[in-house]
Write the structure tokens for this entry.
Amino acid sequence: MPRFYCPAALATGQKLDLPAGAARHAQVLRLQPGDAITLFNHGPLWSAHAADTAEGTTHRGVLGGEFDATVIEMGRSHVRVTVGAHHAVEREPRRAVHLAVGMPANDRMDWLVEKASELGVASIQPLMTERSVLRLVGERADKKVAHWQSVAIAACEQCGGNRVPTVHPVLNLVQWLKAQGDTTAPSRSAQRLLLSLRNGSVPLRNLVQMQEPAPQCAPDAAFAVFLSGPEGGLSAQEEDAAIAAGFAAVSLGARVLRAETAALAALAVLA
Ligand code: SAM
């Protein structure tokens, strides 16, 4: 059944036009009136206000889970649906794991965002570091982040995730580490883990085994934040700065993994 991210307050019986991205997707799939679809709304583009004004009615709506829906009209540029039953189902990993990653260049970051979203990452922080090949600022950075956010949405539509991870605006590592020191940072109580090839890094598996059985995390609570380097790795000074900011160096084994492989392997172990 086709699934669409519809970041609005949804309520059974409500009629609404799908947002532009979802409508385009429905048109590509050549959906017809009467076709059944699934909608989910939990994610970074959520806007209760936009939905409250739908149909001129106030829909209190539900955030999270998923809704049955039926296509009632396929226009040239709009797709109208009726919202059906709500199902309080989530397919999130037990632990909310956030990823801060030195952005790999070319399409490797797209690949990373897609696979991390499938694995249930809670959020992705793209970082510029000393050795980053990909350097993004201003409008170019904003466009890339919007693109990666749409990659994350498409991945959730495909894999059954009902919570789209937020792709944060690009920061440089120094700025980001400074923000980690903020006591109001959402990740303040999370384990801070630096993926590192330096001697003395603790095998990530050991760390996880020590914690089993893992407690079920509240879906919005940050359990761990991984910091991983770009193609050329983090410099020794950058790793030192991360450790000074409370990150523990962890290892994924003796092999040097590509930047995107390392981040995904860490997620797969912990999520
Ligand atoms: N020559 C670079 C270096 O020595 O740092 C290699 C960097 S590696 C391609 C990119 C990033 O992936 C690293 O900065 C690290 O965060 C992570 N990484 C790769 N292999 C890893 C491993 N076996 N254990 C932990 N982290 C790893």
Residues 90 and 152 are 16 Å apart (CA to CA).
